[in-house]
Amino acid sequence: MLYEHLVVYHKEYKEAKANGTELPRLPEYVGHCILLVTNRVATKRNFKNYSFIAEMISDAIENAVMYIHNFDPAISTQPFAYITRITMNAFIRRISEEEKHQYRLLSNSQRHMILDQLNPDYIVGGEHSDLYDNLNQFIKDFERKNGIDNTQIKKKSKRKANENELVEFWN
Known about the structure:
- The chain contains six helices and no strands.
- It is mostly helical.
């Protein structure tokens, strides 16, 4: 049933594109199927435990609606596979973006923790906490996985610090 709707939509889309007229609206049934597929993929074990699952689903729906016109019935008769692939790629992209965001937050937190420890007013309570160890492990794993050289980051931040000191000096 989805395939038949997409065949009609694809034909209307090509005609509208060739004539320069307004592009056709995506059929409601196709939109409903996109919603069902994205929600079902979100329940798979490799995606279901993320705290940002709603953002993953909305990204997948947006991508599927944006690229459903690229589905060519002459090439494939499997629209569900096409939508599922778009959904999974959107999920993976969102996970990657969230990891980058978390890396930035945690690396900044780590820098602040180090600066706090250098402060003579800071009182060290004894042992390292598991949180600090987990933070360091996440940062090391992310940098290794993405090929980030930590020395380059430190050089850039030192350069920015020097520029900021000059600005403060002249003000």
